[in-house]
Amino acid sequence: MVIDFSPLFGQSSPFDRFLEAYWPPMSISQRPYAYPPLNIAEDDTHIRVRLEIPGMDISEVELTLTDSSLSIRGERKGAKGKYYRQERPTGVFQRVVNIQAPIERDQVTAKMKDGFLEIDIPKSEASRPKKIDISIA
Fold it and tell me: What is the CA radius of gyration of the chain?
């Protein structure tokens, strides 16, 4: 079972929204939404995490796996120049996905293609559902 509490944090109050109207946030960590956006899927055998990080190099992203969490860290550097509008966030980011199932740490894989980072976390055999046959007594 995977529980991601990050959407519950960072909710802004009316006072915060008032201040942001006059002093807009400059870094990713101050924005009212989580970055990078991610999807977490789970089935009987795997946990899959997929993030959108277009334009980033694989060397700019760091993945750390513990027994109970996956941490995704990185920094999106801002392009130099004069902008009239800039909607792509820049700066340091971190997302933490809590993992509530035993996993096979040695078999975790990550790949990046077309701006998507996909992390595949296999569950351990002990945590997978097992079908039990019923015998006639």
Answer: 19
